[in-house]
Amino acid sequence: MEKFLPFLLLCLVIFLRKVNGQGDMITTTKFIKDGETIVSSDGTFELGFFSPGNTSTNRYVGIWYKKISVITPVWVANRLVPLTNKSGVLKVIQSDGVALQNVTNSTIWSTNSSRSVQNPVAQLLDTGNFVLRDANDTNPENFLWQSFDYPTDMLIANMKLGRDLVTGFERYLSSWKSSDDPAPGDYTYHCDPTGYPQDVMRKGADVIYRAGPWNGLRWSGAPNMVNNSITSFGLVMNNKEIYYKYELVNKSVVSALVVKPNGNTMRLIWIVKTQGWVNYHSADADDCDTYKLCGAYGTCNILSDPVCHCLDKFEAKHQDDWNRADWTSGCVRKIPLNCTGDGFIMYSGVKLPDTRTSWFNETMSLDECRAVCLRNCSCMGYTNLDIRNGGSGCLIWIEELIDIRQLSQSGQDIYIRMSASEIGSAGSSSKGDKSVILAVALPLLFALILLGLGVGLILYKRRRREDPVVTTRGRFSGHNNKNDNSNQSHHEDFELPLLDLLTLINATDNFSIANKIGEGGFGLVYKGVLEGGQEVAVKRLSETSNQGFHEFKNEVNCIAKLQHRNLVKLLGCCVQGEEKMLVYEYLQNKSLDIYIFGEIIIS
Q1: Is residue 202 over pLDDT 50?
Q2: What is this structure's pTM?
Q3: Is 329-433 CATH 3.30.450?
């Protein structure tokens, strides 16, 4: 009996396959009824009839993942016209292509291909693409129709999201109306090719979210959507089409991008162990992802309160609106542009502005890009098109800069057009200075440098004798607080050594747990060793701390002015990106908190 067991199992598999499915193909003589399915040859996808949600009894033709326990349709055929009973039949008809018919043989949905062939067949491919083709022609370029051209609410691997530039045909996602109704809902997700390509979410005709332009690695405003061990992302752009797609690096992983009925757009991954979907990444993650929340030249920082601020050198266009937390009117330059003599100031760490009113060139250098922008008075800013390999290409904005946000990681640089009188007071070096100004300023600058070197050398030798910690001095850039009515400059000099972030990373072994010596509401304290061998205590302000920039600045001002034999000495500080740190002398065998706050705090 045992020697016949494999044969019996094979017969059982063949029998079940005949009962439950008919291979991966439908022909003019082979069709499927409600209750029957076809399955892709590798067993990944299945096509058949289903009822959505928990309450609907309507019947739809769809495609779903075969190997997971929860039916998750990745495509729906008759989403506008459901069947009300289980009498549906899906067949291939010579004139209509693939057609769904009801009990009276009336066609309620069809592919309605404009071309016809002698022997049409419909096949479910291993990619999940349901195609109509000639039985003897498997060339994708000759497909008569394919489901990948008509996505519903889900983007799966190798699907295209974008536009055919020759025909104008666009592939985009549209949400379901509800979990029980796959009819098109209020939200659509597009790869918008207007200007320079970017992913956008629309509610009706209005843009409500923007992922930012493609920078060669990812969308500018989606720093987490980078190539990884699961997926690789890419933008294809040529004379015929522009589209975004992703591929699965690990073929055993099931992952898809879905637009939910409420507009949430998320990348889902199926977890085999828990037999459920998990949200790997959400597009619209926080308030700062709301399109143009802070208006033109406003920037959104989710760690700030309020979240909206004007860019440095800008002020609220309508202050009364801003006082009411209505930031949509945006900001204007404090000093208007003059075109002649204008220059540029670099702003770092941002999600790039809306590119629908932009111009780009893939071969220009950054200097050439600046020159083009400078010659055009309507050009408001520029940057590199591609950030890979040191940067290349040119991206130019022709109108106001809208929908900027500050990113805590992987933000980009942008050069914004400013009046000549603002260039000299910019916190960072600008390429917009006029040569005539340089011709006058350079001789004076050279003399000042010689004088400064002499004075600096004297001070340097004196400091080396007094203190082994040698650092450079710098500036703090204050936040542009629109609730502050003073005209005080936002760039204040501090007589306090500034240490760069890399120095403190090396000193603390990348802020390792082994070097942690304390913590509190402000964050963590680490022991570190500077290059000269001096031991220090580094107080690192947490991103979730309630201490903002001004409180931090006040602490630095107060402690720097205090000198007492019983008070631990403040050696320096670090302000770089979102990082704010204080560097104290390290006191052996004692907690820094005890020396600063006293024993009563510990007890």
Answers
A1: yes
A2: 0.68
A3: no
